[in-house]
């Protein structure tokens, strides 16, 4: 299936993020953000698991927050 970028959100230094809206061939729209990890995480309601299935982020948010903190402590962000 083909995908197309339908909107670009330029990086905004106040919001500390930028991104794109992607229309997938199956007519679903996905927003992909890039920026400060803790800011992007706060905006997320779902994540895609290793099988490509969308999952609610509620149960995994702390896991992602700990991963962000660990990466920051190792200068990996």
TrEMBL record:
Keywords from the named record: Magnesium
GO cellular component: a single term: plasma membrane
Domain of life: Eukaryota
Record-level Gene Ontology MF annotations: nucleotide binding; P-type calcium transporter activity
Name the record gives this protein: Calcium-transporting ATPase 9, plasma membrane-type
High-level lineage: Eukaryota, Viridiplantae, Streptophyta, Embryophyta, Tracheophyta
């Amino acid at each position: 299936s083909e995908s197309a970028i339908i909107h670009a959100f330029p990086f905004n230094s106040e919001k500390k993020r930028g991104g794109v809206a992607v229309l997938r061939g199956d007519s679903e729209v996905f927003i992909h953000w890039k920026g400060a990890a803790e800011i992007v995480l706060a905006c997320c309601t779902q994540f895609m698991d290793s099988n490509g299935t969308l999952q609610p982020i509620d149960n995994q948010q702390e896991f992602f927050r700990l991963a962000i903190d660990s990466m920051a402590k190792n200068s990996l962000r």
